[in-house]
Sequence to fold (266 residues):
Amino acid sequence: MEISWLKVPQWERYDGLLHGFMGRRGGNSVGPFAGLNVSYRVGDDNQVVSQNVCDVKHLVGIHDGKIVTMKQVHGDQIVEVKDKTLKEAGEADGMVTAGTGIHLGVLTADCVPILIVAPMHKMVAAVHAGWRGALMGIAAKMVRRFNNDYGVAPEEIEAALGPSIGACCYEVKEDVTGPLREKWGKIADANIQMRGGKSFVELRQLNRAILESAGVPSKQLFEIGPCTSCAPDEFFSYRRESSFPIAAKKKKPGDRSASSAGSHRR
Ligand SMILES: [Zn+2]
Fold:
């Protein structure tokens, strides 16, 4: 089975920008990790994961280099990556780089993978944003970071929000909707749906609205791919694959299985 590689059509014009979202198709993992699991943190066989990472790199044309990932913790820590040889950027949920030949990767299974580019500045970033990340506004924090640390205005930023769980499937309880409504007000209200007395969050739209609230123009925000929970053959989904109770637990879902997304400048 071939690895599927979703790209942002609007970004094809940017010379030297390698980017994309991979699902679970292809790869060598078996069982709950079948097939393209690229996370070493979920209990899969490390050797098989290494092979999967190699397959991804081969497909996208990274012959000499790494894809830097993070130890994602559903926080709002952002790190700058400067070292081409780095394999892991430590505990964080956002990475940014202006380095040539540096590839950033974010692993998700329902949470929203957000790739950010500032084409004029040749800068890229990768963000992991689930409901906790949305609550902390990590996507907006990244936009501010671009502005404050690198002089990149929000109007110069474009972002792609990848495959993630939709309001069709993402049922949550008051412990999620309460804090979201308190923090984001109307933005949260617009992205929480009520059906049959239950609440559902539209996680990707919520993160999109958060990016807009930080000043990124709507026309520069792109949504790529389907709801992860609705597409079992295509994407890992923590919610779908675990008999996970609906109430949020302390240890939030997200890193049990993985899909990947990376971006860089050659
Ligand atoms: Zn769905």
In short: The chain has seven helices and 15 strands. Confidence is low (pLDDT under 50) at residues 244-259. The first helix runs from residue 46 to 60.
